[in-house]
UniProtKB/TrEMBL annotation:
It comes from Gloeophyllum trabeum (strain ATCC 11539 / FP-39264 / Madison 617). This is SURF1-like protein. One of its GO terms (cellular component) is mitochondrial inner membrane. It is a multi-pass membrane protein. The lineage of its organism: Eukaryota, Fungi, Dikarya, Basidiomycota, Agaricomycotina. The chain crosses the membrane at residues 208-230. It is found in: Membrane; Mitochondrion inner membrane. Its main location: membrane. The keyword Membrane applies. Probably involved in the biogenesis of the COX complex. InterPro entries: Surf1/Shy1, Surf1/Surf4. Keywords: Membrane, Mitochondrion, Mitochondrion inner membrane, Transmembrane, Transmembrane helix. Belongs to the SURF1 family. The keyword Endoplasmic reticulum does not apply. GO terms for biological process: mitochondrial respiratory chain complex IV assembly.
Amino acid sequence: MVVLGVIPIFTFYLGTWQVQRLKWKVALIDELEEKLQREPIPLPKRINISVLPEFTYRKVLLRGRWDPEHSILLGPRVREGATGYHLVTPLVRQDGTTVLVDRGFVSKEFAEQAKAAQAQDGEVEVLGMLRTTQARNNFTPDNHPERGEWYWADVEAMAEYAGGERANVQPVFIEEIFEGHSGDASWRQAHGVPIGRPPIVDLRNSHLSYVITWYSLSAFTSLMFLRLLLKHRRARARLPRV
Ligand SMILES: *[C@@H]1O[C@H](CO)[C@@H](O)[C@H](O)[C@H]1NC(C)=O
């Protein structure tokens, strides 16, 4: 009885806690969306890494030349059923440090070609958004730069691979923005041109489903508890008085 009485209270508490988390997440997403709406900023020559987290999701405008020699194929990744990689290439900025640009998805058969094609690009202008090192989960394998195997975007390690501080490379990670429609994307996919990401906030918000789960569980176990209580009372009432 005691255990069954505690469960509704405990699950109610968890539900309320998830309501708080939900509010926090919504506020965070709002804040990031507001950041994304702002005008692109030019990146300074030398970027202060310690203030970078404040600028996550800000749009930035870059100019420079690709360094395809130090390109990284991050993957495997899947886009609309096709397997491939994200092509990450250092951008050598004439007027500043070198930064890393995730150019987007290329399918497997075009990966090497897309990497090499960047050498012919000359000076490019890139619109992207600032990101930080990607979170990895327990199932993400370790990267093996020496074998060219990169499973997750470890910004520090990628900057080191591209030459590091000695070569004026800063651990700054930018995702190239692609705003074309799906027809443009299919054309790119068929021609081995990287497909960047749309400028949207892609944070997962599953707190609402947790709220619903915990509160339903709380309601359900309350009912069970009440039924048991009533049964108990009735059983008692039927006992012969002495
Ligand atoms: C980077 O920014 C922090 C915080 O604003 C500041 O304390 C620090 O001096 C800056 N570093 C450089 C090298 O400018």
